[in-house]
Amino acid sequence: MTDVICTTRLTKHYGTNRVVNCLDLRVKQGQVYGFLGRNGAGKSTTIKMLLGMVRPDSGSAALLGESVDSLRPQTRERIAYIAEGHPLYNWMTVGEAIRFTCSFYTQWNGTLVEQILDHFELSPRQKLRRLSNGQRAQVSLALAVAPEPELLILDDPTLGLDTVVRRDFLESLIQIIHRKGRTILFSSHILGDVERVADRIGVMVGGVLRVDCPTDHFRESVKKLVLDFPGPAPEEVECKGLVNQWTRGSQLELVLVGYDEEQRSAVESLEPRSIQVIDLNLEEAFIEYTRGRKRSLPLFAQEESHDSSVGDQGAA
Questions:
Q1: Could you report the per-residue pLDDT of 199-257, keeping only the tens digit for each?
Q2: d(Cα 97, Cα 277) in Å, to the nearest integer?
Q3: 312 in a domain, yes or no?
Q4: Tens of pLDDT along 235-250?
Q5: Which of 157, 180, 212 is the C-terminal boundary of a domain?
Q6: Which of 212, 241, 272 is the last residue of a domain?
Q7: How many domains does the chain divide into?
Q8: pTM for this prediction
Q9: Structural domain contains residue 311
Q10: Helix crossing, 110-119 with 94-102: angle to 10°?
Q11: CA distances from 120 to 54, 111, 136, 157, 274 (A)
Q12: Do 229 and 170 reside in the same domain of the chain?
């Protein structure tokens, strides 16, 4: 499949801090790609470089086959962006915002806009400044998808929305995804939202893309083990793929990536009284992976390829 998003060794510094480090990102046509990372991991800076809002210090980025430095106007029309907080012109009505945004595009699906407004019970006569955060998100969604974009970039679009509004937003997004095989880059701190829609994820840690794999593969690769011992548990153990460990009295908790026969044998050699293997959801796997891992230790294949290409640079 065609690469809709393609970056090559994309790098950005702020002062001495390397916030994005030699990023090689590929998002295929029709994918819904969950772009994850803790605060300061480099996600928003990457999105801004993709959109031309921030210039990289080195490397390159392309959207829909064209360099982001020289996107043609007709190519820009095929790209939509929904930002955190849903900035809109508050002095406009919903209808005025629609007419204003429509004027910048040669293609505009007015019927789709009406369907979205009807679904969310929004009137074109409503003032934007009087809308709730959820309603602003709904208007932003309508404005973003009306030009029938091939690429939709979402930067924390559901942040601050209540559970019901967020669910409605995602349900509408899922329906939109199934229309014409759109490609979506979805950055969010709400991992349950990503888990519902993303078929592939990337995890940024310290400016480095440390994970790039199918969502199910990441979730299934990270396991928590609880080992119970007849006496005090070991304070520290060494094991391939070890992310984190805690000792609590007679129990030892381990978080491992890729629990295989070699790891099983290593764990059993500790001679615990019992071993409990716990499956994690995406949010739990992400938390355990990002808060406990050692940056210098590659755990996924993506990390092996990155570390071999940048040598000892690491992430600033």
A1: 999 999 999 999 999 999 999 999 999 999 999 999 888 888 898 899 999 999 999 99
A2: 53
A3: no
A4: 888 888 898 899 999 9
A5: 212
A6: 212
A7: 2
A8: 0.85
A9: no
A10: 160
A11: 34, 14, 11, 16, 52
A12: no
Q: Are residues 200 and 224 in the same domain?
A: no
The secondary structure of the chain in percent helix, strand, coil, rounded to multiples of 5, reads 35, 30, 35
Question: Which pLDDT belongs to residue 290?
Answer: 86
DSSP character for 93?
Answer: B
CATH number, domain at 41?
Answer: 3.40.50.300
Assess whether 150 and 291 both reside in one domain. Answer: no
Residues 59 and 196 in one domain: yes
Region label for 40, one of left (φ > 0), alpha (ψ between -120 and 50) or beta (otherwise): left
Q: Which residues are CB-contacts of 24 (< 8 A; sequence separation ≥ 6)? A: 7, 8, 9, 10, 209, 306, 309
| Cα–Cα nearest to 51, from 33, 30, 75 | 75
H/E segment holding residue 195: helix 191-197
